[in-house]
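Need residues for this backbone.
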């Protein structure tokens, strides 16, 4: 059902791998609860390390197990990574004084509140996964390697989104929740608006930079062995669409957390379902014309629209969000990012014959420098905040 374009051999292999990969979700279920406890105590260090532990397990599977067990080594590495994801956080429980009890406190008011809020959140997570499954189903009908290309491109987009947006959203959520619980709505509006401006200050240049440098980045990271020049072209095409979606996905991360702080897990789910429908309609319209790029563009459009709708609704709920200041900030960031994109494009033209390492790393360095200079000339409020923080740190 999920990969109708796969042949019998590919389907059988997928089934075997799925059976192994059903183990990590059980471990993550426990690890997620531990992570929530530590976040509630404003403890972010060990939960922040947990995803790295998971990745280390996957790397171990790729480097040590895969040579002997082939692709099954990767699946076993994912299981090892999930175990490490949990174990790295356990010491944090002792530090915050958490104790385990076998009591099933289903009548506890806090437990009931969690259960009430959890169900819409579960549907929300399911919608995100369903979106990617729909894209996988559609891609399975395309040329060989299309599903893998979407996966590679999606993971590359998730790198800046996870490092920046998810990290900031996770750290900001307890603050939002505390301000709402105390009735500090003015502070909540200010905190949310400042957080969104900061995220856009990073996400917009990251998106344009990823778009401009997509081909040398894919070449540098993946083009070796069976990953050929043709593979690079397919992945880079998908990454071109996903890159611009980084802005929408990053914004959704922050805005959804604001709704959760308001004890509203239903609205993000409803808007997520709407975005899924839009993604499906546009994806079906573009897949025969643009292939994997069409699917990625559909995802980008849906994520951007979802972010805009979340802004509209949360602004009404909170009685304002300083949209004028937010718009001016986003416009300045966009102009600085476009200047960066033009210079990076020029750099790639000049360095066309250079090694891929020079083109990719050089493009990142040149682009970063141009963006900060342009943002400074445009008197970006967020850049001044960053420079002020650096000065205070140096002053210590």
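Answer:
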């Amino acid at each position: 059902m999920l990969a109708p374009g796969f042949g019998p051999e590919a389907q059988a292999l997928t089934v075997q791998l799925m059976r192994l990969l059903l183990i990590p979700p059980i471990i993550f279920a426990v690890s997620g609860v531990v992570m929530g406890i530590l976040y509630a105590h404003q403890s972010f260090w060990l939960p922040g390390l947990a995803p790295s532990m998971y990745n280390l397990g996957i790397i171990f599977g790729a480097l040590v197990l895969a040579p002997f067990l082939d692709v099954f080594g990767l699946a076993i590495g994912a299981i090892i990574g999930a175990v490490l994801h949990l174990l790295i956080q356990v010491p944090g429980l002792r530090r915050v004084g958490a104790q385990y009890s076998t009591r099933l406190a289903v009548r506890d008011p806090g437990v009931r509140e969690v259960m009430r809020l959890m169900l819409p959140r579960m549907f929300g997570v399911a919608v995100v996964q369903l979106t990617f499954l729909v894209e996988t189903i559609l891609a399975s009908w395309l040329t060989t390697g299309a599903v893998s290309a979407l996966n590679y491109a999606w993971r590359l987009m998730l790198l800046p989104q996870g490092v920046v947006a998810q990290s900031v959203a996770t750290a900001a959520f307890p603050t939002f929740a505390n301000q709402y619980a105390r009735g500090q709505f003015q502070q909540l509006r200010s905190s949310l608006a400042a957080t969104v401006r900061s995220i856009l200050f990073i996400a917009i240049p990251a998106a344009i930079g990823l778009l401009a440098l997509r081909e040398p980045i894919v070449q540098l990271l993946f083009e070796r062995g069976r990953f050929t020049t043709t593979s690079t072209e397919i992945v880079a095409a998908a990454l071109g669409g996903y890159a611009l979606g980084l802005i929408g996905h990053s914004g959704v991360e922050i805005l959804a957390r604001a709704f959760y702080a308001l004890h509203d897990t239903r609205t993000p789910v409803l808007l997520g379902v709407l975005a899924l429908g839009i993604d499906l309609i546009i994806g079906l319209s573009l897949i025969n014309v643009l292939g994997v790029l069409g699917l990625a563009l559909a995802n980008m459009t849906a994520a951007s629209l979802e972010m805009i709708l979340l802004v509209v609704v949360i602004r009404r709920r909170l009685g304002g969000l300083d949209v004028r200041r937010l718009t001016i900030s986003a416009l300045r960031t966009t102009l600085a990012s476009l200047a960066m994109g033009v210079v990076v494009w020029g750099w790639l033209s000049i360095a066309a014959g250079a090694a891929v390492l020079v083109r990719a790393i050089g493009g990142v360095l040149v682009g970063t420098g141009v963006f900060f200079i342009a943002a400074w000339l445009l008197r970006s409020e967020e850049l001044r905040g960053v420079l002020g923080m650096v000065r205070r740190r140096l002053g210590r």
